[in-house]
Amino acid sequence: MKSLKIIGLSAMILCLTASLAFALGAGVGRDGTIAGKHGKAESLQELIDMYDVSSCIGCHPDNHAEWDASPHSRSIYGTGRAAATMITAMKNGFMSWEYSGVESTKDIKVEHWMGCMKCHLPQLADATDEVAVELADTLLEWYDNAIAALNDPENEEAVETSERLGETLQALDINCLICHNRNAITHKWTDGYPQHDTVYGSTDAGSHMDPDFPKKDRSLIMNESILCGQCHGMGPNLELENPTQCATLYGSYMWAYKANGGRKTCQKCHMEDSGLGHEIVSYSNKKMQEMAVEFDVEAYASQWLDGSTLRPKAVVNVEMENKTGHAIPDG
Amino acid sequence: MFKEEIIYMPTPKLMARGNNMGRGPYEKSSIIDDTGLHPGHAVHERFEIFYPVTEVETPEGKTTQVAAERDMDVTVQLWYKPFGNMSQAELWREWEQTISLDDNDKPTTYYSGNKE
Questions:
Q1: Mean pLDDT of the region A280-304
Q2: Euclidean distance between CA atoms A193 and A28, whole angstroms
Q3: Which of A124, A253, A327, B45 could form a disulfide linkage to A318, CB 3.0–4.6 angstroms apart?
Q4: Domain edges within chain B
Q5: Residue of chain A with shortest Cα separation from B44
Q6: Helix boundaries (H) for B27-70
Q7: pLDDT in tens, A245-285
Q8: pLDDT tens across A206-230, in order?
C-alpha cells in the first residue's frame, strides 16, 4: 500500500512537471523567471502583484518619478484614449473577424490580445486566458461608466466605477520589472533567462538591497537599441495569427539610420542627451521636439513677368531634416 | 488667402493587400506609400504665393493688374498630429514673417505690382 502511494505521488509529480514544461516552453532556466516561479496569473490583480515594483521606489525615487511621468507608466490607459483604442481594436478587430473564434468577450484568449499587448502589456503572456477575458470586460465596463460619468457627473456609481477600473487599468504598465527583468534579455538561449530574484541593469553582477530581488546582474542589451526594439518594432508582427502593425521605429532605425552611418542608440537620445532619464517621452516633449528636426525657412518677394503683366508673389522655401534615428512619424 | 498642408507619414496598407489604407493597428500591415520624414534625409518644400491683385485702367485706356496689398504675412507651421487631427496635436515649429514688395523697384513699362 505504501509503495502504491509513492507510485501515485510520483506519477502526480511527473504529470505536474510535464504540464509546467508545456506551459513554459523550451529553454533551461525558464522555470526561474517570475512567471516560471509564480505560475500564470489568474486575475488582473494577480498579474499586477506579480510585477509589483513598489519596493523599487524607496531606493530609486528619482527614476520612479521620471517613469511615473512617462507613457510607459500608463501603457494601456494612456490618457484614457489609449484604453478606448484598445476597445476599438477589440471590437473592430478580433471580435469582428470571421475566423478569430471570438463572438463575445468570454471567448477572448491571451493570444487575441497580443496584437496590442505584445507591446502595451507584454506580461499578459504570463497570465491565463481568464485574465484576457477579465481585461476585456474591465475595459468595456470602465468605458461605459466613464461615458456615463462624463454625461452626468452627479452619477456617483458611474464616477466611482470608472475611477476604480481606471486605476486598475493604470496599474497595468511597462514598469521597472519589464525592462529590468522580464524583457532585459532577448537572447535567452545564449544569455540565460531573466531570473525572478534578479534585477538587470548596465552594471556587473552583485547583491541588490531588496529582499524580493536580492541579486543584480548585467543585461548585455541594457544600453542597446534592441531593448527598446522589442516593442518599438519593425512593422507587421508576422508571428501573430492575424498580424498587426503599430510600431515600426526599430526597423527604420536599422535600415534607414544605421544603414546611413548613424551611431546613436535609443537610450542615448531619449534618456541621456534629452536629460529625460526614465521619462523617455518623445513628440510631446519640447526638448525632444527641438532635437528631432532641423527647420529653416527663407522667404522673399518676386515679381513674375507673365506676358506683359508683372505678377507679384512671395516665394517661401522650407528646408527640414529629420535629426533622429528613425522615421517621423511612426506607423 | 492661401493655405496648403503637406502630410508627412507612411500610408499603411489595409491587411497587406490592395490599395486601401488602414488606420487602426489591428488592420494595418505593410505600406502603400511613405511620405514620412526619414532620418538624415533633407526635405525641401517651395511655396509660391501670389499677392492679391486688382485691375486698374492704364492711361491708354487698357486694364491691367496691380498688387492690391504690398505686404503679406506668411506663417509656416510644423505640427505633429498623433491622431491625424488637432486632438493632442503638438506645434513643433512656427515661422512668421511679413514679405513686402520692394519699394525700390524701378518703374517698368509694364503695369505691374510695383507701387504706383
A1: 95
A2: 8
A3: B45
A4: 1-38
A5: A319
A6: none
A7: 999 999 999 999 999 999 999 999 999 999 999 999 999 99
A8: 999 999 999 999 999 999 999 999 9
Side-chain half-sphere exposure of B53, counting CA atoms within 13 A? 18
Give the number of other CB atoms < 10 A from CB of residue B26.
Answer: 26
Confidence category of residue B114, pLDDT binned at 50, 70, 90: low
Average pLDDT of the residues in A144-165 = 98
B16/A contact by beta carbon, under 8 A: yes
Asked if residues A313 and A302 have their Cβ atoms less than 8 Å apart, the reply is yes
The dihedrals phi and psi of A76, each to the nearest 5 degrees, come to: -100, -40
Q: pLDDT tens for residues A2-37?
A: 443 444 434 444 443 434 444 568 999 999 999 999
Rounded CA-CA distance A173/B103 in Å is 63
B30 grid coordinates:
505593410
How many angstroms separate the CA atoms of A202 and A192, rounded?
Answer: 16
Tens digit of each residue's pLDDT (9 = 90 or more) over A172-206: 999 999 999 999 999 999 999 999 999 999 999 99
Task: Identify the bridge partners of residue B47 per DSSP, sorted by sequence position.
Answer: A316
Contact of A127 with A41, CB cutoff 8 Å: yes
Name the residue type at position A15: C
Closest CA to B71 of B40, B102, B45: B102
The Cα–Cα gap between A144 and A166 comes to 12
List, for residues A74-87, the tens digit of each pLDDT value: 999 999 999 999 99
Q: Please give, rounded to a whole number of angstroms, the shortest distance from the CA of B107 to a CA of chain A.
A: 11
Which value does ipTM take for this structure?
Answer: 0.90
B102 contacts in A (CB within 8 Å)? 301
User: If 0-12 CB within 10 Å is exposed, 13-18 middle and 19+ buried, where does residue B98 land?
Assistant: exposed
B61 dihedral zone (left: phi>0; alpha: psi -120 to 50; beta): left
A256 chain-B contacts, CB cut-off 8 A: 38-40
Residue of A113, A132, A140, A124 whose CA lies nearest to A242: A113
The C-alpha atoms of residue A176 and residue A260 are separated, in whole angstroms, by: 33
Tell me, yes or no, if B79 comes closer than 8 A to chain A by beta carbon. Answer: no
* Identity of residue A326: H
CA distance A166 to A68: 16
